[in-house]
Specification:
Largest sheet: 6 strands, mixed
CATH class of the largest domain: Alpha Beta
């Protein structure tokens, strides 16, 4: 399995000089204020993956020095504060399961992402997805008097990633087939049978587009019903290709520069939304959905369509990334959490295992949201970054790896800052218990305060409840009469009243019972004792560190507490 091991960006958009992100093949979670470079990272990755399906000159335009008089430089994404002779590039290093690395670069002078002899980035582009708030908002940005037209969304964000049966990019195919009609030497469009032949080709293309829309619609509606509404009929949508390609439209050369507005007006993928009426059992169509559905409903539909399109793609690689930039910023926390749980697949739902194969990069400017996701993830699988930019200056963003509370505690201990060390140990313990007890449904996520001592008690209770359920599953639920179970107290192997299969079942139960007892002793030694020790540590170290106290904190106690938190983390995670 291939992953991104490192990203280097120099003098591109907000980045100046050379910024290195050492991912080590892990997922990424990043927090930063507006203008701090999060979106620049998003667009750097997007630009590099998209470069795999572009010609060199189409890539070089992003790295040219801007000239007001030269239209060819107007799409440049070079940082505007650097000298003209400075280099500007995006570099991506990948690593496979054999630790072999390959580096791919795009700049004005170096491009190796679109080569025919290496399809790694092409495959990455086809399998990956990039979603931010603006892209989702485009699904329903029409005014009240307009109907929602998704053709621009599909043209920009979906068709470039879909492949036809011949493994050709769908947008490239559409543009090639509809860039113009056949013409006479005079330049006039052909007529008669030749025009009819063009119409037949366009009809076939329209049918192919409609078939793709149908697949996306089916996948998206299934996803929305199952994962947003617990398999209940609540909301559904359809995608209707109402305004299609025709001879007359194509002869106007819709893909020429300056024709975008005309193209968007002459092609229509209409979004039809219906709401289920429980009293009648009928579906009722909602007109002008952008005005009558709330933000959460509209976002669910938009995400459903994006996921539906993603699942429609032919997955030819296990190398893929999912990059999310503040895509849920318009939703309150209660509506964000179900989506985050799905994307991270925190419940290990087989239906959502599709997300597990993506290397995820999540960017947000919401500190609370960042901390919430951080508590539910592990530093073994994730890298955390903090982006910062001074709003009153044009200085480059400051980007630092955000250490975990455990790492901070270790650093504070080494520096002799014992109170700070105790505070970070407390934060780490709270995060561990939140994740162990309730995941994204913990009290901390709803804004309700719960003392750490209570969480430790609840953890002990949950361990006991889990033990009880394990016992019932192993023994109480066995389909054997109680009089047969009582035979375990005897030398049942010589009991002639028992059938051979019953003796075999009793032997299996006996082995399970012994294994269970051993497990309980280990559990007492590990999880239960660890939590009991942590309750003592809370009284002696964490509480004095968090409050004004005359109780001195000693290095040896903090070392022991640090080791205890590490053991607790290991066993709770297991």
């Amino acid at each position: 399995m291939r992953k991104i091991s490192q990203i280097k960006i120099k003098n591109f958009k907000a980045f100046q000089q050379e910024q290195v992100f050492d991912l080590k093949g892990k997922h990424v979670l990043a927090y930063g204020n507006n203008g701090s470079g999060k979106s620049s990272l998003f667009w750097a990755l997007y630009t590099l993956t998209q470069s795999s399906i572009k010609r060199d000159e189409e890539i070089q335009k992003y790295f040219k020095n801007f000239r007001e008089s030269d239209r060819a430089t107007h799409q440049s994404l070079r940082n505007v504060f650097i000298d003209e002779d400075e280099d500007s590039f995006i570099e991506l290093t990948t690593v496979n399961e054999h630790s072999r690395t390959e580096t791919f670069t795009i700049s004005h002078d170096t491009i190796n992402t679109n080569r025919a002899d290496n399809s790694i980035i092409q495959e990455l582009n086809q399998a990956s997805d990039f979603i931010n708030y603006k892209l989702l908002h485009n699904f329903y940005s029409a005014t009240h008097k307009q109907e929602v037209n998704l053709w621009p969304v599909f043209e920009r964000d979906i068709f470039p990633f879909l492949m036809d049966d011949a493994n050709r990019v769908m947008l490239d195919k559409i543009r090639e087939r509809t860039k113009d009609v056949e013409r006479y030497r005079s330049g006039q469009p052909v007529r008669g049978r030749k025009a009819e032949a063009v119409e037949l080709e366009l009809a076939a293309l329209n049918t192919e587009i409609e078939s793709l829309l149908s697949q996306i619609q089916t996948n998206a509606n299934e996803f929305i019903k199952k994962h947003f509404f617990a398999n209940k009929d609540v909301i559904r949508f359809s995608l209707q290709f109402n305004k299609r390609f025709s001879f007359e439209k194509v002869q106007n050369r819709l893909w020429q520069q300056g024709k975008q507005a005309e193209r968007y007006n002459s092609l229509l993928i209409k979004l039809i939304v219906e709401i289920f009426q429980e009293d009648s059992g009928d579906w009722k169509q909602v007109h002008r959905v952008q005005s009558f559905l709330n933000e959460a409903q509209l976002t669910r539909i938009a995400i459903g369509i994006r996921i539906g399109a993603l699942r429609t793609r032919v997955q030819t690689t296990d190398f893929k990334i999912l990059v999310l930039d503040d895509m849920l910023i318009s939703l309150d926390m209660s509506n964000r959490m179900p989506i985050v749980k799905m994307i991270l697949n925190l419940d290990n739902n087989p239906d959502l295992s599709f997300f597990d194969s993506f290397q995820k990069i999540i960017l947000t400017h919401d500190k609370g949201f960042y901390e919430l996701i951080k508590r539910q993830t592990s530093s073994h699988q994730w890298e955390y970054y903090n982006f910062h930019a001074k709003e009153d200056e044009n200085s480059p963003p400051i980007i630092k790896r955000d250490r975990t509370s455990l790492e901070k505690a270790q650093a504070f201990l080494a520096d002799g800052e014992y109170d700070a060390c105790g505070n970070e140990l407390r934060k780490e313990t709270e995060a561990l218990l939140d994740k162990y007890l309730k995941g994204l449904n913990s009290a901390a996520d709803t804004g309700e305060f719960e003392p750490l001592a209570n969480k430790l008690n609840h953890a002990l209770q949950q361990i006991s409840e889990t033990n009880r359920k394990d016992f019932e599953k192993l023994f109480v639920n066995k389909k054997l009469p109680v009089e047969v179970i009582r035979k375990l107290q005897t030398d049942y192997s010589k009991d002639t009243s028992l059938e051979p299969n019953q003796k075999g079942q009793l032997t299996a139960i006996k082995k399970e019972l012994i294994a269970y007892l051993v497990k309980q002793y280990e559990l007492k030694e590990n999880k239960t004792k660890l939590i009991e020790d942590m309750q003592d540590t809370l009284k002696r170290i964490m509480n004095p560190a968090s409050h004004s106290s005359m109780v001195p904190l000693y290095q040896s106690e903090l070392k022991a507490a640090l080791a205890g938190v590490k053991r607790l983390k290991k066993h709770l995670n297991s």
